[in-house]
Structures are given as C-alpha cells and as structure tokens.
C-alpha cells in the first residue's frame, strides 16, 4: 500500500524500499497540484487542492519536503541542452566530474552537501546526458539489459546481500586484497544473476501484460 515509512516500517531488512513510498506519493501529489493550478472548473480545482493539502499534512514532513528533489528530476526530464555536439560532450565530462566531487563530498560532509545539493547538481547534468551516444553494439546491448533488470535488482539486491553476508561471512570483514576483491566480485555477480532470474520469471512480460490490458479495456 506504499505506507512504508508513513504508517509502517519497511518490510524486513529490505530498507531500500523506503523510496517506493516516496515515488508513489509524488506521483499522486504532482497531478493534484497541476489540477489545482490549471483546472478550469473551480469546484474540481478546489477538490484537488483540498486533497493535495490533506496529503501534505498527513505524509511525514521529510517525505513531503523531498518532493522538491523529485521536481528537480521532473524539470530535467523536460529540459533540453542545445549546445551542439562539442558543447554537449564537454558538459557531459564536466558534469561527471562535478557530480563525482559532490557525491564524494556528501559522504564526507553530509550536513553541508545534503540530498538537495546532490539532486540539484545531478539534475543540471542530466539534460546533457540525453541524445545519441556513440557506443559499440555490445555496450548498447549490455546497457539495455541492465536497464531492463534495474527495478528487479533494486527490489531484491539488499535482502540477497544481507543473507549472503550474515550466512556466509557471519560478521567477518575482508581486506582490500585479492581474496577480498574475489569475494566482492562473487557477491556482485551472484546478486545480478539472481536478479536476472527473478526478472525473467516476473518482470520480463510486463510490457506484454500492459499491452493486453490496454487491448481489453481499449
């Protein structure tokens, strides 16, 4: 019901699922805000504004406030970057460097470089990443495949790693040597492989199911 962090904690040890509630309620709030501002029928606009106001009052303050960061992404998704191929390439590289520095700084000084700063810098960089990319076919295929399983990977990665660490390592840590790198690589490869299996069983046919539903209710 998308009430994790709102009325209940996240399920089990799967703490990354906190963001599902944020996304869901932002998807509810955004059209309500648009209808409240743009709807030509006053009664409907008032109803949308009232429901939006109630949700903003009911939702936790941190969740509601961080919709501003989500709006950064909304603006970036509707933005454009028309500086020519050379300008786009320069901003892609420059933006990557700035974002890497900001992301590293957020781990070092999280009070000063918070989520708002990280989200804002990434949103400024994002429009430059759109458009055509020159890449080998194998890289395109790999990128497409990783993009397709990204949601499944997001949903299952943490419990898988939690199980592997608690059952396999049993609280031990590894050193940054050859053995440690091998353990890390095995955990990474195993998590991606299991995620691909889950995607194959459950998410692969999402578009087909959506198309079938649309045909039935066309």
Layout of helices and strands:
Elements lengths: L17 H21 L3 H17 L2 H5 L1 H11 L6 H25 L6 H15 L7 H12 L1 H20 L8 H26 L2 H12 L1
Helix pairs in contact: 1-2, 4-6, 5-6, 8-9
Description:
The protein has helices at residues 18-38, 42-58, 61-65, 67-77, 84-108, 115-129, 137-148, 150-169, 178-203, 206-217. The chain is an all-alpha fold and 218 residues long. It is built from ten helices and no strands. The relative contact order is 0.07.
Order of helices and strands: HHHHHHHHHH
Total number of β-strand segments?
0
**Would you tell me the structural class of the helices and strands?**
mainly alpha
Query: Which bin fits the share of residues in helices?
Result: over 70%
Shape: globular
Overview in brief:
The chain is mostly helical and 218 residues long.
Index terms:
globular, mainly alpha, 75% helix, 218 residues
């Amino acid at each position: 019901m998308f009430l994790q962090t709102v009325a209940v904690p996240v399920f089990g040890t799967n703490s990354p699922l906190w963001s599902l509630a944020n996304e869901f309620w932002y998807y509810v709030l955004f059209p309500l805000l648009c209808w409240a501002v743009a709807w030509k029928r006053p009664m409907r606009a008032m109803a949308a504004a009232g429901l939006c106001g109630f949700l903003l009052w009911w939702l936790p303050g941190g969740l509601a406030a961080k919709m501003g960061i989500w709006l950064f992404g909304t603006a970036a998704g509707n933005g454009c970057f028309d500086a020519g191929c050379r300008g786009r390439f320069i901003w892609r590289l420059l933006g990557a460097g700035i974002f890497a520095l900001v992301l590293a700084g957020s781990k070092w000084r999280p009070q000063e470089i918070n989520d708002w700063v990280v989200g804002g810098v990434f949103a400024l960089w994002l429009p430059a990443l759109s458009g055509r990319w020159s890449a080998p076919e194998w890289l395109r295929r790999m990128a497409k495949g990783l993009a397709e399983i990204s949601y499944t990977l997001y949903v299952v990665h943490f419990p898988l790693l939690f199980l592997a660490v608690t059952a396999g390592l049993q609280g031990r840590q590894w050193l940054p040597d050859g053995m440690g790198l091998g353990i890390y690589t095995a955990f990474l490869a195993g998590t991606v492989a299991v995620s691909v299996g889950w995607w194959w069983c459950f998410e692969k046919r999402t578009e087909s199911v959506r198309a079938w539903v649309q045909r039935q209710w066309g």
